[in-house]
Every structure is written in C-alpha cells, then in structure tokens.
Amino acid sequence: MKTFLPTADPHNRRWVVIDLQGATLGRVAVKVADMLRGKDKPTFTPHIDMGDHVVAINAAGLKVTGSKLLNKFSYTYTGYPGGLRKHNLGNELNRRPDEAFTLTIRGMLPKNKLGRKMIKKLHVYAGSEHPHAAQQPTSIELKRK
C-alpha cells in the first residue's frame, strides 16, 4: 500500500466567522489556532498548511478569567538600551483588542515559516463589521459557559 499524503490546495480553504463577544480569551484562541493549523480536519499533516481562513469579530468583547488582566504581561523591545517595555493584558485589551487576540494565537502556532504563513489567514476586528463578505464565510457558534 502507498502512504496517502494530502496536498494543500489554497482554493479549497474555507472562510469561517467567529463571534468573540463574551468568549473567554484562552478557550476560543485554542479553537481558532486549531482551525488555522488544520487540526480540525481528518487530513491534518504537521508539515503542510491545511488550515482555513478565520475572521474573528467583536474582539473588544473578549473576557478573561481570574486576575490575568493585571498579572499577565507581554513585552516589547525597542532596540535601545533600557528599551524593554512591559504591557499588562488589561491595558492591551482596552487599547487594541484585535492585536492582543492575534498575539495570543501567534504563541500557539509553530515558530517557523509555516507559522508565519498560518497567521496571515487570521483576520481579527474589534467591532462586528468585516470586509470579507465576498468570500461568503460560514458562521461558527462557540460553546459558552
């Protein structure tokens, strides 16, 4: 028998819309990262980008449990001595909720060329409007607790 190896066809990728209003950041990020990577498909192959395009709307409505809003930090470096900047999650979600959600998912993807290719299929918007109606995305409901 020959081993079946799937091929990634960029024309067969689905477009999916996920409403983040009231969703928990980490729980929904895992599901979105799996969709971007293609782990939700039976033909998942680790070295091939088999994932779908994900349009996430209402990122401003994300919620976080516990004290992560004050105690979880992200760091950026300006390149200058003493230029390490520290931002807590609460400020980032208030200022740029779409960027905070994108950074969360970027940390769940591979740290190589394949991961950089996968993150380009994520489209996050703070409000409920998005410019991807021409792709006819299907809406996916998330389980909420």
Describe what this molecule looks like in 3D.
The protein has 145 residues and is α/β, with parallel strands linked by helices. It has five helices and six strands, in the order βαβαββαααββ. It has helices spanning 25-37, 68-71, 89-95, 97-106, 113-119; strands at residues 15-19, 53-57, 73-77, 84-88, 122-124, 138-140. Helix 1 packs across helix 4. The longest helix has 13 residues, at 25-37.
Individual helix count: 5
**Main sheet properties:** 4 strands, parallel
Strand order of the largest sheet: 5-2-1-6
Categorize the overall geometry: globular
C-alpha-based Rg, rounded: 17 Å
Report the strand count. 6
Which structural class fits the helix and strand makeup? alpha/beta
Low-confidence stretches: none
Give the topology string: H per helix, E per strand. Answer: EHEHEEHHHEE
**DSSP helix fraction:** 25-40%
Distance between the termini: 46 Å
β content, as a range?
15-25%
**Chain-averaged pLDDT:** 94
Question: In short, what is this structure?
Answer:
This protein has helices spanning 25-37, 68-71, 89-95, 97-106, 113-119, and strands spanning 15-19, 53-57, 73-77, 84-88, 122-124, 138-140.
Map the helices and strands.
Layout: E1 15-19, H1 25-37, E2 53-57, H2 68-71, E3 73-77, E4 84-88, H3 89-95, H4 97-106, H5 113-119, E5 122-124, E6 138-140
Parallel strand pairs: 1-2, 1-6, 2-5
Antiparallel strand pairs: 3-4
Name a few traits of the molecule:
about 20% strand; 5 helices; alpha/beta
